[in-house]
Amino acid sequence: MHTEILNLERRLSRWRLILGQESQARFSEMGGKEPVGDMDLMDQALAAIYNRVESGGFGLQTGGGAGKGPSNPTITRWLGDVRSLFDKELVTVIQGDAMTRCGLKQLIFEPELLENLEPDIGLASTILLLKEQIPKRSKESVRAFIKKIVDEVNKLLEQDIRRAVTAAVNKRRHSPIPSASALDYKSTISRNLKHYSPKLKTIVPEHFYFFDRTSTTAANKWKVILDIDQSGSMGESIIYSSIMSCILASMNSLRTHVVAFDTSIVDLTESCSDPVDLLFGFQLGGGTNIDQSVAYCETLIETPSKTLFFLISDLMEGGNRAAFARRLQNMKESGVTMVCLLAVVDGGKPYYDAQMAQRIAGMGIPCFACSPQMLPELLERAFKGQDLSAFRKEFERRR
Known about the structure:
This protein is of the alpha/beta class and about 400 residues long. The protein contains 16 helices and twelve strands. Helix content is about 45%, strand content about 10%.
């Protein structure tokens, strides 16, 4: 009975936070108590952006919820309270609402505010979109904020991408030179199954297979070309693409090129040593001429069969759509391995021209609205020459 009463009180307290101070009288009639301690602080923090009354807060008076609210709250103090009181996932939602509901976009370049913001891909996209408006006093704080996000995504991707590329590129060919560290266990076991000894209850290999560690000369290296759309919808995709580009560019077994486009083309390959520098090289918000950019990327191809081409775009082509499609078809027929990574927005929702995506997929070029966690496996399969269309279908089943 006591447990049921506690559960009821918790539910009432949570609904009271959701509905705000204006609902307190009704909750009191049901036995609900005034918020105290951390619950009171939560109530004030939420009231600052969701209030509908004139009892404080810096939110618009036409918002959706209510609360007592602090008088004239300091934004940095409010951010500190939010981060200490709510789970990280909720913090990013509340931050986003503060930006859109309360006109705080004008304040995100304040150094003190940036220091207290929780790293968030969506907010980073907004900053990149507005980067030309960053005041001089805030440039270092903005870079530090972007770097926090880059570091988080890098931790997510780097190890798996390196493993995937190494497994696919450096270990594709066998060598006659024996080396314990280069032993290809899978091939050695599968090719010696007929030499299984029932008496010893083990396989007695007749021949061992070793990976070739020497096939990393310039002529044997794979070339990776990332052709990245920098139109306004591409913010989140650009962040992930930049980090992937820098990881790939740091690997000696690959040659990596990064191209950004809207209605013009910028080769950003020289900026690949630092993902933050690379991100600031993008100019978000332009139009789109994909055909022109793919034409430039064609000039970078030396050996089609050793080239992996990523088109990263929402496919909202503003140029010649028929010419663009023909160019992709010709590139594929030349032997280039091709993948189209579709734009994602708002934390991973696909955003793209479905008609163009269907047309490209019909050429046998797989189109993915791919989560970052899938990139290492996608890279490994691409380098191994596996059927990426089959992988796309498998990816769709996993979603």
